[in-house]
Amino acid sequence: ITMSNLNASQLTFLRVGPQLVRVLRVMRVSRLLRLINKHPGLQALIKTIMFSLPSLLNVFSLLMLIFFIFSILGCFIFEGINSGYIIDDFKNFNDFGNAMLMCIRIATGEDWPYIMYDCNNTDSDCIPGKTCGSPYATIYFVSFQVICTFVMLNLFILVILQQFDQYYLAEDNIISKFEKDLLVFKSAWTEFAQSNRCVKMKDSKLVAFFKSMDKPLGMEEDDIKNDNDINKNIVQMDIRADGEGYVYFNELLYK
């Protein structure tokens, strides 16, 4: 009786429910990402890509600039071509938006020779304003293909390889140095913050904390005459404690 009183809209969740369960089951594939933690090589590769993002963004900006330039050129050279093997009323160079989409399509290598033939049609039987192309089409498309496919793609690869060489291949690379220094820092932190479950450390222990580590993390006695000099350096580092006079791991590590 109760089910008969429910309308169709109230039973919608019964149809959505199984679909949602299927989606959640598919998301279980993400568990494979845990394998990354067990493979140092994969970790190094992913970290390299992360470190390369700023440089890759610059390369991507340059690529977008090239797309912009060739889209403008395409509008000037091939405007009015509306018919061909590939070109039609929707895929053409008649405005900047369509030209940009065509450049992106050409950059992927999809049917770009046929698009070039459509824009290179200078036969006597071509229809002006519809199928007549330009004799400069070959230069336009070949140069664009060479720049995007060979130059820019290799530039992306070069950036990633350069970052990998800088951060991992060299014996004295930055990542190895950071990991070694991090182990030293963690060891000293564990010693001085053990009374607070290694969560926080009293700011009064900072002088002894820095004395316990060698350079570049610590302050050696040869360079520091007394504890007052260490306190001055701590003030210059702008290490901030909470209201109870405790400093925390990340606050101290990244100063």
Question: How would you describe what is shown here?
Answer:
The structure is a single chain. With 255 residues, the protein is mostly helical. The chain folds into 2 domains: 36-169, Helix Hairpins, CATH 1.10.287; 174-253, Orthogonal Bundle (Recoverin, domain 1), CATH 1.10.238. It has 9 helices and 2 strands; from the N terminus they run ααααααβααβα. The protein has helices spanning 12-26, 40-78, 96-107, 112-119, 137-169, 174-193, 206-211, 227-236, 249-253, and strands spanning 200-202, 246-248. It has a two-stranded antiparallel sheet with strand order 1-2. Helix 2 (40-78) packs across helix 3 (96-107) and helix 2 (40-78) runs antiparallel to helix 5. The longest helix is centred in the N-terminal third of the chain and has 39 residues, at 40-78. The chain is elongated, with a radius of gyration of 31 Å. The mean pLDDT is 78. InterPro entries: Ion_trans_dom (IPR005821), VDCC_alpha-1_subunit (IPR050599). It comes from Euplotes harpa.
